[in-house]
């Protein structure tokens, strides 16, 4: 009766069936509210730290204040403090959060403090206050282990140049020197934090059989499960992770973080549940940040404004032994055509807290700097920046000649310009009182990815249940998975229950790289297709002749209640998506265009963004509301990248100085103008059978440059070091005085 | 956070009596003190809760001024119709500070005594003479973008972060204090101390001195402006701020009261700047001279060098606006 059948898709070829367009329920693509919304706004959605199993103790991490070899501590004295149950100094504690999709333990403690801020111990006590106080009293002795570099650009920094990440095509130098117009500038972006609203928190509990359950706040559960198992040295089957609600991730919760390991190890020692919550200041330090970048961009074009050379050489930073490095030029490889190309990638090994994936790793900073450079070249060539871009739309992947799965760059540029009312003028033309007014624009681009995903769909006569370990990090997974199942199986969304965030359920994609919605929706779609075919077979029609709507099966002008067809039965199907050649044979990407108007104070250099208009083509829109929210978020991130956000590192030891939300400046409401978001609906058959693509990250990949370019247009000041804080703008203004 | 004793004072005499040691602190809104206690930057052994005291009202005084109770919240003070009419610079300064939630909780007394936002002061892993006398000053050669350019010493370059106090300084406010020896008044200009070699001592208050009120003299008239320059549109401390009360009569500046935030260890006021302005006709050259005087001793520490030109530009803009013939 509960037979579960499997539908597997190895995604090698485009799917031209577009079955979703033939469905009848009419809920997909609407702006349906999040089903879990009422729980969230009424405080009934339980986030990671919000349960308290009986007997729970509290752990608080101890931070290394210097760098070097750990030689001792005052653990004994701390152990004697009121309420203290245990001082954990286990070598299995992790140095920093795991990189996204690592699936194995990150670098462990190894008796070393690699960077200032590294968690080196955990104090567990009866109450949170006791644990925190004792942790603050704990002193770990650290012997200096030589001199280190703290700035990627310092002479002491060891720089790696991995061969695989360098590219030369054509005669780059020749094209530069023979060009009608060219530019050669250094651009810098700052070290940045994800700053998700919910701080990382974990509650670990072991059972008698040596299995551990962790309530945490994570994005990629099937990977996190393996990471925790590897750290602890237990079999993955002995690990269960629960993350039903996640208060924002932006990459910071891709990989298992130190609090989870500390909670699991302490709980094992004490034989009782342990909760470890990171203080906001610890979130900043121990969870991976976005690397600062230095980007040398050289561009050349002919007299007509056709690009002839593209050079993008990047320097990023990372801790020793960490495999990830910010893939700055990811978008550069294909965004614009030019026959002569040069890409350089250099990694400085320095002692700042570990870098990792933060929303749109690569393009967020790479496209942003590049789109400033394009603006500069257009200006040098005397061509409107919109027109300049239109003259350089690539027809195919400029480096390997592969086709694009869909090419919407030109359409988004044109539509965006129309919606904004783009009209380009020379700089320093418009003024209101002390404020210079100007406009700027930029293109956005982001690679589109799919990863393996499973999902189970259970159909009964009364409704549908969707189950997998997918996470909803605030993005709307609950909503869209509900919608896909409702649409495919013909039920109202209220009759679909979506259960997520539990590794005991089929392993989905998790949330990251904007691949979550498309990958896991495809798994749900596959399971639904399986069920549709089983229904069709039972009725004796072809699946394509079957209409499912409002709990009825409709075929040949006949209508049968599903409850009659299924009776008391529960039909189960498992969808399994496996990425294949469809991701390799073509270049899949999402495209957009952002236009901005800013005002810049001629007195102080303060910038106020007055309006921002984004036009994006990112596949089929599954839910208009959550898709739009993603783009709002991305544009605001772009604004932060352009104007306010920077982690300051102490020049003497690399530690993060401004590690709280008062001094790490995210844009506040007053910084954000009315944001226009418009989607160009497309059907990219290469993407997946749903034609759905990643959305979340696209809007940050370039929108900051629209702001920077608008500043130049307003007041004539070109800022090449982000964020464009008022002092940087003022310096340029002073030169005009 | 260290464990501490807690006493809820029923009247000011009891509050003063319960205090009296370095170990004791009054707590009002708690928006600054509690943060510092959680980080153990401050670790009082005893808290005297003063929120039940009768210090919440705003009254008119015989000389046409105002007596603002120490427990009046920043929100209530900013919204008071008399303040908005007679001392608008104060209302504007308050509204430029913190966030709505914080202003609802923050009190007048607590705002005057909030501690610096120097990053290193908040970080127990770093040397800081203000937090731990004699340990050194990490900010001088560290990240000091937000720190002071006036009134610093080799021992400390922190700023006082308040907006409210800057406006009050421009308005010649006085602080009413109840101590073991009774009640006294101190001009706000004499209330704060320069860091010198004791940056941990920030005011003239003794441990058992309770601020009971702030007194404003009769409305100063003139044009009143508060301009705050910061890293985002709201919810950020001042990099530079200017509170100005300016009057022009017959083409000549007849009154100039100017105080500055973000520049020094206290709301900054310079009598020589005002003397140079009063009696002179407004002009760009005059404003430049005023800035020369104000910034004569200014010293940048690298990251905060930009505050010197920024102050000059902001002061000129404020003075221009304040002296423009009204349309
Ligand atoms: C994120 C953030 C942003 C902020 N931004 C700004 C800003 O932009 N501009 C700005 O001006 N401020 C800002 N503030 C600071 C805020 O204004 C102060 O925290 C607040 O004014 C302090 O008032 P309180 O009543 O909460 O003081 P408390 O925290 O209760 O006390 C502060 C100190 O004053 C002492 N104290 C309190 N009342 C008395 C009294 N009557 N007599 C003697 N001693 C007393 C306490 O012992 C303590 O040492 C910000 C604060 C935060 C947390
Ligand atoms: S400037 Fe003052 S508060 Fe900051 S570190 Fe130096 S001594 Fe401490």
CATH homologous superfamily of the domain at 362-448 and 588-736 in chain A? Aldehyde oxidase/xanthine dehydrogenase, molybdopterin binding domain
Poorly predicted ranges of chain B: none
Termini Cα gap of chain B: 56 Å
Given this structure, which CATH class of the domain at 223-323 in chain B is correct?
A: Alpha Beta
Rounded radius of gyration of chain A (Å) = 27 Å
Q: Name the hetero compounds present.
A: flavin-adenine dinucleotide, iron/sulfur cluster
Domain Aldehyde oxidase/xanthine dehydrogenase a/b hammerhead (chain A): 42-146
GO molecular function (chain A): iron ion binding; oxidoreductase activity
Protein name (chain A): Periplasmic aromatic aldehyde oxidoreductase, molybdenum binding subunit YagR
Region (Disordered) (chain A): 1-20
Gist?
Chain A has 737 residues and is α+β, with helices and mostly antiparallel strands. Chain A has 17 helices and 29 strands. Among the domains of chain A are: 4-30 and 451-581, Aldehyde oxidase/xanthine dehydrogenase, molybdopterin binding domain (Aldehyde Oxidoreductase, domain 4); 362-448 and 588-736, Aldehyde Oxidoreductase, domain 4 (2-Layer Sandwich).
